[in-house]
Write a structure and sequence with these properties.
Layout lengths: L1 E9 L5 E9 L5 E7 L4 H14 L9 E4 L7 H8 L4 E4 L9 H13 L9 H17 L28 E6 L4 E6 L2
Parallel strand pairs: 1-4, 4-5
Antiparallel strand pairs: 1-2, 2-3, 6-7
Helix pairs in contact: 1-2
Amino acid sequence: MVACDFFTVETVALRRIYVLFFIELKTRRVHLAGCTSSPRGPWVVQQARNLLIDLAERPRPLRLVLHDRDSKFSAAFDEVFQSEGARVIRTPVRAPNANTHPERFVRTVRSECLDWILILARRQLERALWTYVDHYNHQRPHRALDLKVPNPGGQVVPLTRVKPTAVRRRDRLGGLLHEYECAA
């Protein structure tokens, strides 16, 4: 099951940029679709197609897609998923709790990343979001996953076996994010 939503970011010049993302509910893996200043129907439909291409390697096909009743999610957007055999569910009107996982991700990305950065342009926002989503999917532990990461990349070593000098810290986004790994 995949849920999707938009959120907006204001630049320093007070321009509004829309960000579309998808989140897999079981694994909490986030797929950043893109950023645009005008999220019209054809752009949103193309992002849905791009997501299906990314998810084509999965062993199980996509079954459910959840989104709110925003006018940006047109019938053509729904048809992209329905053509692949997925059922599209729209949340009730004015019910943000019906789409909680995307709402929680928006709150997290704002509090951990975007509230600490002055965004000048769309390219800078995209770079910051790609970095954050990579951190979110590969390094950040999640309570719902028993403090595991959505997409583990390396070997997990119990902390009892690690000497303090054998840990290396990597700073990302100018020191805003810290990632830790065992030193070789």
